[in-house]
Each structure stands twice: as C-alpha cells, then as structure tokens.
Amino acid sequence: MPPTRATGRRPPQLPPPPPPPGGDDDDEEEGMLRMSFLEHLEELRSRIIKMLIGVGVAFVLSLTFANPLWNIVAAPAVQALTNLGVNPPELAALAPMEQFNTIWVKIPLLCAAFISSPWILYQVWAFISPGLYRRERRWAVPFILCSAGLFILGGLFAYFVAFRYGLTFLLGIGLGSHIRNVISISTYSDMFINVVLGVGLVFELPVLIFFLTLLRIVNPHFLLIHSRYAILAIFIVAAVVTPTPDAFNMMLFATPMCMLFFVGIFASYLLVLSREGRRFPWRKVLVPVISVLVILTGVLILAITKYGFHVVPHWPFFSR
User: Fold this and answer.
1) Is the Cα torsion angle 16, 22, 28, 31 positive or negative in sign?
2) Residue 59 in contact with residue 112, Cβ under 8 Å?
3) Is 198 exposed, middle or buried, given 0-12, 13-18 or 19+ CB atoms closer than 10 A?
4) Confidence grade of residue 105 (pLDDT, cut at 50, 70, 90)
C-alpha cells in the first residue's frame, strides 16, 4: 500500500484470515455422495436387479449339478435312517411334481443363494456406501468377505452338525411303536432349507453388531452391559430355529450364537479403537492364542497317528 500523507509510513498489514475450522471433517463430508429421494429409489432398483442377475447366473450354474446336489442334501436323511435301522434308507415322492420342484428348483436355488452371497453383499455395501465417510468405506472388502464367510460357515455348521442331530432325534420318535418312516422329499427339503438358511443368517450376528457400531447406534460398552438380554434373545431364537424341542439340540444352536455375539463385540471394540486412533495389542494376544493352537494341533496329530482316530463327516468329526 502507498504511504499516508500525514506520517509517510505504511499502515501495518493485517494477518491473513485463518482457515475455516474442521478441514478434515469437511473433506470427509465432501466424500459423501448427496442423492435425492428419487435417486435413492433408482439406485435401490438398480442394485436389486443386479442381485437378481447374480442369483440367476448362480442358479443356472447349480442346475448343471442338480443330481449331485440332491445326493448331498439327502445324505443326512440316508445316514439317519441307516443308523435307526430303516431299510431301505430312502425318501419318498408322494406327488408327480415333487421330484422336479425339489431337485430342479428348490435345491439349486438354495445353492445359488450361497454361491451368489458375496455378490449380493457387495451390492448391499455399494448401496449404503455413499452415506458413509471416506475412511469408513475402507471396510468394504472385510465386510463382504466376513459376511459371506460367516453365511457359508453357518450353512456348513447346520449341515454337518445341527441338522443331522435334529433329524436323527425326530425320525427316532416312536420308531418301535408300529410307526414306519415315510418321508416326503418335499417336506424334507423344506425343513432342510429352513434350517440351513436360518443358521446361515444367524451366523451374520457379528457383522450386524459391527454394522450397528459403524452407524453409531450401539457401542461395546452398551453391548456388554446388556449382554444378558442378548443371550436370552439368542436362546429364544435358537428354540425357534432348532427343528427339535429337546435342550441338547437347542444348545447346539445357542452355543455358537453366543460365541458369535461376543466376537461381534470384539469387532465393535476394534472399530471404536480405530476411531480413537488407538491400536489393539495384537502381539500380547496372538502369542498365547497361537501357543494354544499349536498344542491342540499336536494333540490332534498324536490322536490320529498313535491312537487310531480318523476324521468323519459328522459331529464330533473324530472316531476310532
């Protein structure tokens, strides 16, 4: 600026204005996509169509293995009937369309749901991700892998453990009281699908807890304080999902569900630590865990090599 006439001095220059506060938050806000209500509906329609296309492709792929898939699905019934001394251990078709509806429609659809689960979960994440912060979108790959893995793990648990015990219990009721088991393949497949899908969805509990924490609806402290109510709800769900009314089979469902609940709390705690800029002491935890796993592996190898145990495709998975 030119000097003033009175003093001949330059006036003091003012400092530059400070930058607007919350720069990081503003960057995060800019990373969020703003959409109108109609745009949300259009995005939802697009994602649903893509889900259905993925399920359709998986269904066509499953049709090429329809008969082997049915043999896998019928294996628990054949094993249960064999153990109960029923000869021949076969299921019955009581209507002309039962074979077609079961072998060529229901079972391939069930298989398609598991095969396409990663694609479906990706579409779910792609729909909700525009409303998340930029740093929260980094959870996309862990979300898809963990969700699909837990869903498939739940189906395997239902197939190899829970469903087999429940089916043997049900078929054994009144077997020596002038009752002959004639099981319709339609009734059997409906029960199989309900149990496998139900347990697969229940195994998504850790992902649900993590997602609620991501949306700041719950936190680990809240979940721990109210864990007794959650365990009560888990046992109620297990009683509904379990195909038998006995306590043993209900415990087969409830025990892993309780474990998954606390796994979800741990995942929620890791998310809170990440938000606060802290780290979990993995080294202090992993060393004893790995030590225990090594000891258990040694005991397993010793049982197989020295004491004649071998792996079997049903619970408890080891037999002499």
Assistant:
1) negative
2) yes
3) buried
4) very high
SS (H, E, C) 84-118: CCCCCCCCECCCCCHHHHHHHHHHHHHHHHHHCHH
pTM: 0.76
- The answer to whether 122 touches 144, Cβ cutoff 8 Å, is yes
pLDDT digits (tens, 9 = 90+) for 66-81: 999 999 999 998 888 8
The CB density around residue 219, as the number of other CB atoms within 10 Å, is 16
β-bridge partners, 318: 311
Q: What is the rounded CA–CA span in Å between residue 310 and residue 103?
A: 33
Q: Which amino acid is present at 39?
A: E
Residues 173/80, Cβ–Cβ less than 8 Å: no
Distances (CA, A) of 224 to 164, 218, 227, 266, 276: 33, 11, 5, 10, 19
Q: Please, what's the b/e burial string for 47-66 (b: 16 or more CB within 10 A of its CB; e: otherwise)?
A: beebbeebbeebbeebbeeb
